[in-house]
Amino acid sequence: MQSFEINRAQEKDLPKILEIYAYARKFMRETGNATQWKDSYPPKELLAEDIRTGQLYVIKDEAVIHGVFTFFIGEDPTYARIERGRWLSEDVYGVIHRVAGDGTVHGILEMIVAFAGQQIQHLRVDTHKDNKVMQHLIKKNGFHKCGIIYAEDGSPRIAYEKL
């Protein structure tokens, strides 16, 4: 059985991380989600900032990076307002964003949720209405649909929470 580890991303990981996000954008387009990340999201500058702040993580087996995500504990401004529902709790929470895999490993989100849950059991995540694959995986990993939030660009996202 393959063994994976999750580590904070380093600047030297950026080329592989960018490849993984390019693969994820292509996969999303092919599965009916053409607008969530468009052609250049997340931008290299945002990823570099996430690395500097220690919020970008990679999932590796030995030397190969297979997945990437952002995780932090604390308030996410985009979660301050929720419509058509409500959060399950207002306690401090962990946030999972920008989940992507290289397509060769299954269970990426499961690994992320286990990792994040070891640090804080109250988690929030969101995804685009067209991202049916991610919606399925989020529910499969024990999250409950709470309502609609709006990303920084103003586009709506389905918000989920796990206690």
Primary descriptors:
alpha+beta; Aminopeptidase; 163 residues; globular
Query: What is the name of the CATH topology?
Result: Aminopeptidase
Q: What is the fourth-level CATH superfamily?
A: Gcn5-related N-acetyltransferase (GNAT)
Q: How large is the radius of gyration?
A: 15 Å
The strand line-up of the biggest sheet is 1-2-3-4-5-7-6
Largest sheet: 7 strands, mixed
Classify the oligomer. Answer: single chain
CATH architecture: 3-Layer(aba) Sandwich
- Reading the helices and strands in chain order gives EHHEEEHEHEE
Overall mean confidence score, pLDDT? 95
Our estimate of the beta-strand percent is 25-35%
Counting helices, strands and paired strands, the structural category is: alpha+beta
Top CATH class: Alpha Beta
- Give the strand tally: 7
Total helical segments: 4
Number of domains: 1
Structural shape: globular
Residues in helices, as a percent range: 25-40%
C-alpha termini separation: 30 Å
Low-confidence stretches: none
Commentary on this structure:
The protein is α+β, with helices and mostly antiparallel strands. The chain has a single domain (5-162), classed as Gcn5-related N-acetyltransferase (GNAT) (Aminopeptidase), CATH 3.40.630.30. Helices cover 29% and strands 29% of the residues. It has a 7-stranded mixed β-sheet. Helix 3 (108-119) links the parallel strand 4 and strand 5. The chain is globular. The model has no long low-confidence stretch (mean pLDDT 95).
